[in-house]
Specification:
The protein is an alpha+beta fold and 310 residues long. The protein has two domains: 119 residues, Probable inorganic polyphosphate/atp-NAD kinase, domain 1 (Rossmann fold, 3-Layer(aba) Sandwich), CATH 3.40.50; 169 residues, Sandwich (Tumour Suppressor Smad4), CATH 2.60.200.40. Helices cover 29% and strands 35% of the residues. Strands 5, 6, 7, 8, 9, 12, 13, 14, 15, 16 and 17 form an eleven-stranded antiparallel beta sheet that branches. Belongs to the diacylglycerol/lipid kinase family.
């Protein structure tokens, strides 16, 4: 049997799967043995555990493969640990137990943790494109899902600091918590000036509002930023909505919530390298983690190995 190191976050998704964790471990153990389990307690712990494991396996890196049981934030930390240490070749299996689980949704990993754990028994390694954001303010950050400035980051902030997130997670409806924060974020987020470039072609605007750099179409627990026909995983996508009249913004909101994700006010660009800058003070979210501007950032993609269902 292949060996695996498990990095587990019992608090993911407001601990809604905590009682089932022994069962998930037992399913994984039927194929991967022996298992070593490391539990996290706070944000950033998974990255530190990953870095410790790299050091422990430094003379036998071919033997190291990781299984993450947690949310997208936990997976984000593990990926950042591997990438910063220069080991994108270490394969990661993923059992989603978080709130949004957009990485699993985008890569055909079952959203039911038991089914995801069972799927690991036949999973195969695949190199996926992930995002890289380089800035003087935050250094190099790797993102598995999205890097957002403005409206979507405002929604993340409102969601993370809301009472309804825990309540919806308890009902196993955590994917709705993002949508439940949209109307409040609409009232809070203002227009702001920004400049951006894609592969050397630039634009300056004074009414930036929603700006999302993403590896796949999904955001905030299954909200779709663009339709399947525009889903090109070989490039980074940039979805932008300018600050418009409330009626138009509500039309855009309906287009996203309905899954169509097409509206004349939604702008979608794809490219290998993007530049984005703003001197305004607005929220940033990187895979659901909170940051803030002002910022000047360069974004592109690199590869990371994952164990994905066959």
């Amino acid at each position: 049997m292949p060996f695996a190191e498990v990095i587990m976050n019992p608090s993911a998704g407001n601990a809604r799967w905590k009682k089932q964790l022994p069962e998930l471990v037992a399913i994984i153990e039927s194929h991967f043995a022996p298992l070593h389990i490391s539990q996290t307690r706070k944000a950033g712990d998974a990255r530190l555990v990953t870095e410790r494991l790299i050091k422990a396996y430094q003379h036998k890196m071919d033997d190291l493969q990781l299984i993450v049981i947690g949310g997208d934030g936990t997976l984000h930390d593990v990926v950042n640990g591997l990438q910063r240490q220069g080991h994108p070749e270490v394969a990661i299996g993923y059992v989603p137990t978080g709130t949004g689980d957009d990485f699993a949704r985008a890569n055909h990993i079952p959203l039911d943790p038991k089914k995801a754990a069972a799927a690991l028994t036949t999973a195969m390694p695949h190199a996926l494109k992930i995002g890289v954001a380089d800035s003087a303010k935050y250094g190099t950050q790797y993102f598995i899902n999205n890097f957002g400035i403005g409206m979507d980051a405002q929604i993340v902030y409102q969601t993370n600091h809301s009472d309804h997130k825990a309540a919806l997670n308890a009902l196993k409806l955590g994917h709705l918590s993002y949508a439940a924060s949209i109307l409040k974020a609409l009232r809070q987020q203002k227009r702001f000036p920004a400049t951006w470039q894609v592969d050397g072609q630039g634009m300056a605007i004074d009414n930036a509002y929603l700006n999302v750099f993403t590896n796949h179409p999904f955001l905030g627990g299954g909200l779709r930023l663009f339709p399947n026909k525009a889903d090109n995983r070989s490039t980074l996508s940039f979805v932008q909505v300018h600050r418009e009249k409330l009626g138009i913004l509500l039309q855009v909101l309906f287009a996203i919530l309905s899954g169509r994700s097409v509206h004349r006010a939604m702008h979608h660009a794809q490219g290998q390298t993007f530049e984005f800058a703003t001197s305004a003070t607005v929220p940033i979210q990187i895979d659901g983690e909170e940051y803030s501007t002002p910022i000047q950032v360069t974004l592109h993609q690199t590869k990371q190995l994952f164990l994905l269902p066959t």
